[in-house]
Every structure is written in C-alpha cells, then in structure tokens.
Specification:
The chain folds into three domains: about 130 residues, no CATH class; about 110 residues, Gyrase A, domain 2 (2-Layer Sandwich), CATH 3.30.1360.150; about 40 residues, no CATH class. It is about 35% helix and about 10% strand. With about 325 residues, it is of the alpha+beta class. The protein is globular.
Length: about 325
C-alpha cells in the first residue's frame, strides 16, 4: 500500500492555512514553485544533464558534483515540517534521489555520496500544541527590535535622530545598537535592552558581544556545549550583534504567520542544530556514529577518501574514520 499523507489543517486566518497538502500554484509563480517537490526534481534533472555534458567521473581526476536541494527548507518555512506538505515533499525527494542514484549506477562510475543539511527546524506551534506540547507558542511582538526600542525610549528618553534604538531582522539572534548613539547613550541602551529581553519569560539567555568575545572557543562534543558556548561558536566580532538573544525552546520567532513564512529556524536547540551527515559508497559497510560530530568534519573526511593530504592543524574539523573495522580510512592524513 502506498504511503498516505493525511491532511490536518491549521487555520491562521480566513485566507491562510496549512496542512491540506496542496501545492497548487499559478503559472509563473516562482516563489510557490521553489516551495514544492517539483523544484528539487528540476534541480536533480539539471544535475543529471551536467553529469553527461561535463563527462563527470570519466577523467583521471576526481570530480565534484555538488547538488543543492532546497525545497525541503522552503516547504518547512511555508507549511511547517510535520504536516501533509512536508510528508509529500520528503516522499517525492526520496523518489527523485533514488532515480538520480539509479542513473549514476547505470554509468558504472565509482562514486561516493555525502548528504547533509545546513540546519534543522521546528514545526508550527499550532500543530505542536495539538500534540500535547503545551509550551509551544509564537513569539511576543514586544521582543521585536522596533517594539523594544519604543519601550526603551519611553523609559530613558533616548531617541536617535534616525531609525530605532535597536536594529535586527527579528525578535531573536543578533540585536544591534543604533550607531549614532554616544558612548554614554550606548551603555544605557545596552543595559536597558539586556534587561528588557532577559526579563521576558520567552527568553532563555541574553549575551553581550563583550561577553562572547571574551569567552573561550568551543571544545569537546557539540551536544555537551552550554548555551554560552553555542552562542560563542556562531559569534563573529566583525558581524555579530551587540546582543545575542536566545529564546526558550519551542518559541516560534514569527509572531504573525504570513504566506510562505509560518515557521523558521535559528535557535540553539537540538531540533534546529542537528543535521544528517551521511557518507555512502558502493561496498561500504554500514556503520552509525553514536556520538556527535560536526559539519566541519566533512571536508577532511572526503579528502581522505581521495588520498588528498590535508594539514589538519590548518583547518577546522577532523577526519572521520568510515572503516568499521580495525583499519582507518583516515590513516593517510597528516597528524593521524
């Protein structure tokens, strides 16, 4: 019996709902196309043509065919990740990938597959609450930078000549101070902003750039990192905000759902941080790594597979041993 995606609709407004499992769209609607299973199928079809046109795998050197399949991300943003739409998307993607690998098999080329993703993601809180996850909710609008700025101005009387006191793309993550503030104003606004966010029940932690800049670099297994270590791992002194705001688990940082944007990611929690990392090659013995690894481990692992020596003290990450026996697939790497 074929798998069935059972529609369970979540209604946000008179004109917006998700869960029906419909991907109907008007002709020429590129935004709707990219949030549908057809998008990944088209990318894989293009990859298959490039396999032949570029004669990949037929020369003396190793070739890379890098394929970005983004529809799952767009479907997640548009519909959430536990509804009929995502079920249909993943079934279609699995089928399309299977057909693509069949085509690779037919060439007789010795190839390796590495599959990963750039992030995970939560489902919509409306559906999570129906599943007895009672703390799932949408973010309070007072946490958006514009609303926080208005509250701080009301308390302090500080108002920049142009723009808001606080700037950012949403109610979490990087929050920036208006660059026109004097040093004294900046110090006052920073303290007020930190108190504003830290005092809200939907906020788990708030870190200043000074705190993260002074924090040690992450070490050890990533599943054991503290929130401060997780924030430090993403911190860039030249780009990160003056404050980094981390919300509580299952607080969706979208206050009002919009068409194409009902769910998003970017939290420090496992459902956003965990990604698959899979290596597969014909004849490879099955093995699963029970401990946490990192995406930076991918490059040195692939390098070892093709005999490319990588100076391990010059890169992030480590080579992962893909041999389940006493031998090591990383034995040729410097420093191993």
């Amino acid at each position: 019996m074929a798998p069935v995606a059972r529609p369970e609709t979540s209604q946000f407004s008179d004109t917006l709902s998700v869960g029906a499992g419909h991907f109907a769209r008007e002709g020429g609607d590129a935004r709707a196309f990219r949030a549908s299973p057809e998008a990944d199928a088209a990318v894989l079809a293009l990859a298959a043509t490039q396999l032949e046109a570029q004669k990949l795998g037929r020369g003396e050197a190793t070739d890379l065919l890098i394929v970005g399949l983004s529809a799952t991300d767009y479907v997640g943003h548009s519909y959430g990740n536990r509804g009929a739409e995502m079920c249909i998307q993943l079934l279609a993607l699995d089928d399309a990938l299977g057909s693509f690998l069949d085509r690779l098999d037919a060439t007789g080329i010795d190839y390796m597959v590495m599959l990963t993703a750039d992030h995970g993601g939560p489902d919509i809180p409306e559906r999570l609450r129906e599943q007895a996850i009672v703390d799932a909710e949408r973010v309070d609008p007072v946490l958006y930078p514009a609303a926080a700025s208005a509250a701080i101005t009301a308390r302090t009387g500080i108002a920049p000549a142009q723009g808001d006191l606080l700037l950012g793309t949403g109610p979490f993550g990087d929050i920036y101070m208006n660059s026109s503030l004097t040093p004294a104003q900046r110090a006052r606004v920073l303290a007020e902003a930190k108190a504003h966010y830290a005092g809200h029940r939907q906020v788990r932690a708030v870190f200043s750039r000074e705190e993260l800049d002074a924090a040690p670099a992450p070490v050890g297994s990533p599943e054991n990192w503290s929130l401060a270590t997780i924030a430090r791992a993403s911190f860039d002194a030249d780009r990160s905000g003056d404050l980094i705001v981390l919300l509580q688990p299952r607080v969706m940082p979208i206050a009002t759902p919009q068409p194409g944007y009902v769910s998003t990611h970017g939290s420090p929690w496992g459902y956003d941080r965990r990604v698959p990392i899979l290596f597969w090659r014909k004849g490879m013995a099955h093995m699963e790594q029970p401990q946490g690894i990192e995406t930076v481990d991918i490059m040195p692992t692939l390098a070892a597979q093709i005999g490319l020596a990588v100076p391990m003290d010059k890169i992030d990450g480590r080579c992962l041993d893909l041999d389940p026996g006493p031998a090591s697939s990383c034995s040729g790497q410097p420093g191993r």
